[in-house]
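note to self: dont lose this again. the chain is below, predicted strucutre after it. 393 aa total, dont forget to put it in the shared folder this time
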Amino acid sequence: MNSDYIIELEKVYREGLLNDTLPFWINNSVDREFGGFTFMLDRDGSLMDTDKGVWQQGRFTWMLATLYNQWEQKGEWLELAKHGIEFIDKHCFDTDGRMFFHLDQAGNPIRKRRYIFSETFAITAYAAYAKASGEQWAADKAINLWNLIMKALHTPGALPPKFTSNRESKGLALPMTLMVTAQELRLNVGDQGYSETIDKLLERIQLHWMKPEFSAILENVGMNGEFIDHADGRQLNPGHTMELAWFILRESEYRNNDPEILKMGLTILDWMWKWGWDKEYGGITYFKDVKERPPQEYWHDMKFWWPQNEAIIATLMAYRLSGDSKYADMHRQIHDWTYKHFPDKEYGEWYGYLHRDGRVSIPSKGNLWKGPFHIPRMQMICAKECKKLLNNA
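---
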């Protein structure tokens, strides 16, 4: 990448973040009557449904506070982060200290799930808000919530029972989410054993989910890391594991460019790019079967927005940290394909769901899963990556 190209690339990410993505959500999703944010928006930003996903409350609150901490101390961002934290604190917790998944507009609970992802996104929100605001109670809340979920994960019977099976398995989503949550806690409230936790997670991921015999990292394995030769056990999600790759690359940089951690991140990216890149139409497909059989999920060949976002981050970060030009080529491929197909030039923001050939499947902009997280996070991180590349040139 030459300097002129990197300058133009940084402009795309920066202007997309500040002039498109953030204004779309700030103008359309802030609920001044009931608090929090309503993310179920149609193509033009109009409200389709007033229900509120708890994941997205935490994610957008984290995004706003992180922009305040890392980009610019803009009063509007801090005020909106406080707006989000207050709704989370008032409405998103059950009496047992754990969190709901789905609320109505006023904050009344609709659903609660067994897994702990509502909590992890809230932890990152509280931690980032604590740093932005200087409010110690928010840091304490982040730490205490982390301790609660870690205790629950390691205490038999602490979580609601799941369906028992004679084919027990464990998913990659948990260790990778715990890793990035620990990274955010360490960044915003200080290292209180979080690096040690990350060490254990890295070791477990490498031992149990990384499979050199397939040149792949699996989504689901047996309780001791064994391969399960059934549909769930053969499942690959290349965008998901490329997201993990950049979490690991970021960790290598934090540890003074640790070569073994760097190698692990680059290996995962190399493996999963080969599985995910659609050689016929371009873009990252959603699911693959590690034995190249038909995946069971009917949306397996669709192009969702977030795998593209994660591949864009991972390839750019890999290029900066390794200096290997192949990652620059990969980044140009995924960046160009994504920016050709996903941005909505008429109403702003991005479509979320495309068919394999890049045609829009549905035009809506938000739901319980899609909101202002993967796209603005990608734009923020990649703009900063470009700045680092220019500083190193």
